[in-house]
Specification:
The structure holds two protein chains of two kinds.
Chain A: E1 2-5, H1 13-21, E2 26-29, H2 32-37, E3 40-43, H3 49-59, H4 61-70, E4 75-78, H5 80-83, E5 88-89, E6 95-96, E7 103-107, E8 120-125, E9 127-128, E10 143-148, E11 150-154, E12 159-164, E13 168-175, E14 178-181, H6 189-200
Parallel strand pairs in A: 1-2, 1-3, 3-4, 4-14, 5-7
Antiparallel strand pairs in A: 5-6, 7-11, 8-10, 9-12, 12-13, 13-14
Chain B: E1 5-13, E2 16-17, H1 32-42, E3 47-51, H2 56-70, E4 77-80, H3 86-94, E5 99-102, H4 104-108, H5 111-120, E6 125-134, E7 137-142, E8 147-152, H6 153-163, E9 167-172, H7 184-193, E10 198-201, H8 207-216, E11 222-225, H9 227-230, H10 236-245
Helix pairs in contact in B: 1-2
The chains are: A alpha/beta, B alpha/beta.
Chain lengths: ~210, ~260
């Protein structure tokens, strides 16, 4: 069973349905106990980093997510959920993330060329940086759906794919049992569902 | 690099797609759920559902259908039609919409854009504008193109973007239904002032019209159409292949 952490941010309906469509039992939950019992955890997220990080802390789910991730359980952060896996964000201030991956969240306006529209919104092909379990069923060059104005600047070797938008922006990350995608796999058609299917097949690292 | 988006628009009334549709291999051509699934498989990059019902029962049916579509079709869904309040935003977003398009509702109450952008984020708020030439200027029309608001279109759009609209759908009443190509002059005027994505609407009659659009105006991000897709005049996968041949970045579905 895959648990989708519900800490009061965004609509998780599509995400739950997308797992259902690939035959994976996914549960939307506010309960630390359900996260603890789940085979894997999804950390979704939309909106501003500060609000989401605050809500996650207030929900108390942050501690379970960190301890479960450290114990080897597969964790997938999606969009802002991926950004929260990192140490800190510079979105409207400086805010702390979960610190499971090394690096920070920076505005894309600082790296992309002038004249490109922000947010980076639309379908963009993945460029692979390294092998990832998430790419088991897809090929390099498949398009995913992105909507974001900030990007993850990793300071470890976690980046598994980038998307080119005036600069190579972090599109997916993997480090041991910790996974993330900046794009929305639940809105990326069949290619996105294949990413979720690959994640649903991951197992805990002992 | 980011691809140019192709967006079919479905007008929904009392739970059914209106404007005739003519597809082989599609069980129920008037079922929004089936049609959305079909388009998703063909490579549509996004879908717009436009609610043209006026009654409360129709509205309820619409949200039920939206919910069912969102549970089966995993590409971005934009909803428009009858969006006048934050409650309307809330209703369609909870039913599975990813973005909400405002038109007459924003003309009646311009602060709607700002309020919605603050709550849901700019990326969620699409400003849809129906524009027609009147005495040599671009004029905004309301109520489905029936009422001249007197507003000048480019400044209205600029104001919308400043208030937090994350995307613009520009529908030219002058070219709509003519099927002789998009309104390049009007689109150019809007692209010059827009730092958010611009979606071209009104006038597409053939694959070449989309090629001309994206070649002439590289700052246009997407092309929207209804009947040419519904009637099969333009097949989305053929269009995407032609775009790629012409050097226009497109998301191609594998067969």
């Amino acid at each position: 069973m895959t648990a989708i952490a519900d800490y009061g941010v965004g609509n998780l309906f599509s995400l739950k349905c997308s797992f259902a469509s690939i035959g994976e039992d996914a549960v939307i939950t506010t309960s630390p106990d359900v996260l603890f019992k789940a085979d894997r955890i999804v950390l979704p997220g939309v909106g501003a980093f500060r609000d989401a990080a605050n809500k996650l802390r207030l929900s108390g789910l942050d501690k379970v997510i960190i301890s479960e991730a450290n114990s080897g359980k597969p964790l997938l952060g999606i969009c802002l959920g991926m950004q929260m896996l990192f140490e800190k964000s510079y979105e409207y201030g400086v805010y702390e993330g979960l610190g499971l991956l090394k690096g920070s969240i920076q505005p894309i306006s600082g790296v992309i060329q002038k004249g490109l529209k922000i947010p980076h919104m639309g379908w963009n092909p993945l460029i692979f940086v390294k092998d990832s379990k998430l790419f088991k069923y897809i090929k390099e060059g498949e398009c995913m759906y992105f909507v974001h104005s900030y990007y993850a600047k990793a300071e470890d070797d976690s980046v598994s794919a980038v998307a080119e938008y005036g600069a190579p922006l972090t599109a997916a990350v993997e480090k041991n049992n910790i996974f993330g995608c900046q794009f929305h796999p639940e809105k990326s058609g069949d290619a996105g569902l294949k990413i979720l299917k690959a994640f649903a097949e991951t197992e805990a690292i002992k | 690099m980011i691809t140019k988006r192709i967006i079919p628009c479905l007008d929904v009334k009392d739970g059914r797609v209106v404007k005739g549709v003519n597809f082989k291999g599609l069980g129920d051509v008037a079922s929004p759920v089936d049609l959305a699934g079909y388009y998703s498989k063909c490579g549509a990059d996004e879908l717009v559902f436009y609610d043209i019902t006026a009654s409360a029962e129709g509205r309820k049916l619409f949200t039920d259908i939206l919910r069912e579509t969102a549970s089966k079709v995993f590409i971005p869904l934009t909803v428009g039609g009858g969006i006048n309040t934050i409650e309307d935003f809330d209703r369609v977003l909870k039913s599975g919409a990813d973005k909400v398009s405002v038109n007459s509702g924003a003309i009646k109450n311009p602060s709607l854009i700002e309020q919605a952008a603050k709550i849901y984020g700019n990326q969620c708020v699409v400003l849809s504008v129906d524009v027609k030439r009147v005495d040599g200027s671009f004029r905004v029309f309301a109520k489905g193109g029936r009422e001249d608001t007197g507003l000048e279109a480019v400044s209205w759009i600029k104001r919308g973007i400043e208030s937090g609209a994350g995307e613009i759908v520009l529908n030219s009443i002058d070219t709509d239904g003519v099927k002789n190509g998009f309104d390049l002059e009007m689109l150019d005027a809007v692209c010059r002032i827009s730092d958010v994505p611009v979606i071209a609407s009104g006038g597409a009659g053939s694959i070449d019209d989309f090629i001309t659009l994206f070649k002439t105006l590289p700052r246009v991000d997407a092309g929207l159409a209804a009947s040419i897709f519904h009637f099969g005049t333009v097949k989305i996968n053929d269009l995407k292949r032609k775009m790629a041949e012409c050097g226009i970045s497109a998301r191609i579905m594998e067969d």
